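re: that complex we talked abt at group meeting.

here r the seqs, copy pasted straight from the sheet so there may be weird spacing, ignore it
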Amino acid sequence: MTVASEQDQRDTLQLKYDPRSWQQVNVGREERLLSTIAGAALTLCGLWRRKTVGLTTALGGLLLYRGLTGRSVLYRLLDLNTVKESPSTVMPLPDGSGVRVKRAVTILRPADELYHFWRDFAGTVPVHPFVEQITPIGDKSWHWLVRLPGGEFVEWDSVLTEDIPERLIAWRFMGERLESVGGRIRFDPAPADQGTIVTLEVEFKRPDKLSLLNIIPSGMILSRVPEQLVREELRRLKALMEAGELPQAQPRESEKEARRNA
Amino acid sequence: MRAVCWNGITNVQIERVPDPQIINPRDAIVKVTATTICGSDLHLYDGYIPTMQKGDVIGHEFMGEVVEVGKEVKTLRKGDRVVVPSVIACGKCYYCRNNLWSLCDNSNPNAWMAEAMYGFAPAGIYGYSHLYGGYGGSHAEYVRVPFADIGPVKVPDGVSDEQALFISDAFPTGYTGADYCDIKPGDTVAVWGCGAVGLFAMISARMLGAEQVIAIDRFPERLRVARDYCHAVPLNYEGTDVVEELKQMTGGRGPDACIDAVGMEAHGPSLLGLYDKVRQTVRLTTDRATAVRQAIQACRKGGVVSIMGVYGGFLDKFPLGAAFTKGLTLRMSQMHAQRYTHMLMERVAKGEVDPTFVVTHRMSLDEAAQGFELFKHKEDECLRVVFRP
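got the structure back, here u go
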């Protein structure tokens, strides 16, 4: 059952881009970083040395544009593209508002067990980094307490949007300063007796605030962080369902605190 | 508690660190009664394993007494004497279920690090860098043992600490190496390296029915141990052409299987050996390959080369052409301890084998720094140092 469903095929097809579009990002990650650094250096250099200000600053500006936006005019004319983002795991949302991350893991447990674990939501707290608490409000909604990396708390509500027993669960988020718009998780049988293929798909919003994070657009940092997050969630789900606990070398900070207070 | 901390290249010190605590339901805390410096500790000591941090407690080959168990551990009780496999495994994932314990999916909290380096992550190992999980090591008074319901093996009365100790790592590593060789009656097995792992590989090869075992090293005292305790024919590689010698010792056929029990810091008298040393010193390559190169060259056509010495990164001048042309089978891994620990403990208890012949030095933890130097330079005929915390 590893054949992509109809929905997946559509997802992949959406990615088929027009290489001649002006909007198309066509410069790879490392190259963009180099362009940005070189562009900034040249621009500063040009402003410093008055004599060649025009030429140097113009070239610096071009490189900066290339680095920051990931769009190269030259590459477009030559029909080149050096972006290596794996298209099946991270894809930009059609309206450009963020990215969708989709990753799979195989867990040596039956689908019904995994489905019921996830369907409860409240019990999935250990699976999500940054999530402190999930409380049910009614049958199909939950209240999430999230502690952002800076230590600040935000609160979101989630609502169940799709529920196919032992097969698929989908949800949407509502609230302020959302990092994630929603997601879905699918359970497919793995070959032989290898358990269940769990596919987790989460949509992430580009932050509203203008920050360094979103000046450098989706190809770079913005897609890295969500991808690591989904990777980690799947890894934790697997460990929790198979081994019954999350591997840990050191006590968590909260546990250390609890011990100190005890 | 007191513990041996890694503070930089060839810098280990005894320090006071916080006692380990139960974190997970399947944990236990073990009071260490014996712990030994493994050859692979030297790769940490010499700075060849990445992701070490100053202050990391090292050590992974140990035994001790259970002092506390988590609420899910039903198989152990306070006061049990146990020997603990150095590789940590959950016992529930695909790999554990298929007896590939050192490939456990769920015991490495830093799996992402290893995934970036190796594509997929190996199991966690006590005190063996953050790449292998960042767990506290065993050269300490106490160790936290995760998945204690699966790994630790009870030591029967009548088996001493030192007899049980090597079932933690060196013995099953040697056994894994020999098991990979698919030994058939009449086979000759050549083993590079007469450290503890090599010696246990020789004993294991005999257990599995090898007719002739050849021990390769350059230290006469180690070759003597191989001859006296492991019934191996010694071959000193210094001043001789090992490949040619092995051919002649096997009637021109070559060994049926070769075991590399040396790994990434091999010494070689040849020009190529010097080349490796220079490149490794300036970090152009991470691994020195003399032993495995010779093993591939010497092995008979269609034979098995079994690699138990540790490699961490990239190997230069690897003779893949020879391996391909001769149709060799290459097998390698960290040992799958849990596959063999019970069987080995039974054999030790029955008196079939007494692993204590590898112990040459006994020290307290406070002497750790001297212990490491002694072991690294093989001074005073040092074969294995055992700390009794």
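couple things i noticed - The CA atoms of residues 7 and 53 of chain B lie 7 Å apart. Chain B touches chain A at residues 21, 23-26, 72, 88, 90-94, 97, 105-112, 124, 133-136, 146-147 (CB under 8 Å).
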